[in-house]
Amino acid sequence: MSAPRGQRRVVRAWALYDWANSGFATVVLAGLFPIVFQDYWSAAAEPSVANLRLGWANGLASLVIVLIAPLAGAMADRTGRRKRALLLFAFPAAALTALFALVPAGMWWLAAGLFVLATVGFMAANLFYDSLLVAIAPRRRWHAVSGFGFGLGYLGGGLLYLGCVIAVLRPGWFGLASALDAALAAFVVTGLWWAVFSLPLAFRVPEPAGTAPRTAALPGGLRQLRSTLSHLRAHRPVWIFLLAYWLYIDGVGTTIRMAVAYGRSLGFEQNDLIVALLITQFVGFPAAIAMGALGERIGARRGILLGLGLYIGIAVWGAFIQAPWEFYTIAALVGLVQGGVQALSRSFYAGLIPPERAGEFFGFYNLLGKFAALIGPPLFGLLGVWFGDVRYSMLALIVLFMAGALLLMRVDTVEGERR
Known about the structure:
It is a multi-pass membrane protein. Pfam families: ATG22. Keywords: Membrane, Transmembrane, Transmembrane helix, Transport. The chain crosses the membrane at residues 16-36, 56-73, 85-103, 109-129, 150-169, 175-196, 238-261, 273-294, 303-321, 327-349, 361-386, 392-409. It is found in: Endomembrane system. The protein is mainly α. The chain has one domain (5-205, 224-418): MFS general substrate transporter like domains (Growth Hormone, Chain: A), CATH 1.20.1250.20. It contains 16 helices and no strands. It has helices spanning 5-41, 47-79, 82-99, 108-131, 133-136, 142-169, 179-196, 199-204, 217-234, 236-265, 270-298, 300-318, 324-350, 358-387, 394-408, 413-418. Helix 1 packs antiparallel against helix 11 (270-298) and helix 14 packs antiparallel against helix 15. The relative contact order is 0.17. The model has no long low-confidence stretch (mean pLDDT 80).
């Protein structure tokens, strides 16, 4: 990455936060938490009911983000405190993650409550993390830098998850009595990992300049929010992209959050699910970086559409899988496109919005992404309950990916770049 040394240092510190918070994404959102939730905290319930509970917990966390994201982003823009806001959400969420280890067996409602709070912190911090992209690198490097962040996140999250998996499979090596004890201890380690690796961002990434004192943050943020809503209505490329993103990122997010629970419901062994997630993480590391570079060559939109086409094929195949090797293959295919679709979406959107209002505009970006998650995971669970077979859950993903792709093709990037 050809850039001045100081800028490279800032970019690495920024990207290292992806390394930090991806531990939560792998161990909690995608990996061990769904298994522990179903087998320990919801052991008395049917698998479809446990899936539905987890889906509603994801949906509630997303609803909170829908309510706070745009205003929080506008306030951070005006006061120049995007980084401070990120850390204000991240550190308490990391502490709540560690508290999962103290939840007794059968208390699914308490586990779900802590999960909602920690997930709100995770998603809110990501809002401010995404918005810092426009401040830490020149526009021509946004695709590559965004891909670098996601790639580093896949590697860090994968390494942490691998360590947790080894502990679950061989608890005696770590002085633990059982696999359950190891899984609960993994939540403590994940919280510490998140907090410690957030420190480079805290100390090395500068705050973007603000435009108002702290006392004016709330009223000024409300005025700016009203102004941006008017701008969104008038700026067709932005709102068309946001609608497209709302649809397809719901499919991506639901795949991340519900894949392990889906595999468990089909009767796959815990070890099969663990291996599949590890495959996704370690394939995702180079793939996200490569997709960022590909976006610079063929354009972000084409890269996203390529990924969505593969996602549709994955969802169709996922409805019919029978054997663990199929689950592994699908995991590898998801790893090829998951980080790339996320990274290119972030940098594509950054090219459509005013940089001075990045926090606020990324508030809407995260709002629609999380509002989609308000629908996706519960719908994924409901389809399995309604039809009496969890395989029908794949229908939700297919529709979301197709609708999102069709809308994305209608975004006028030339008009968007004029602003």
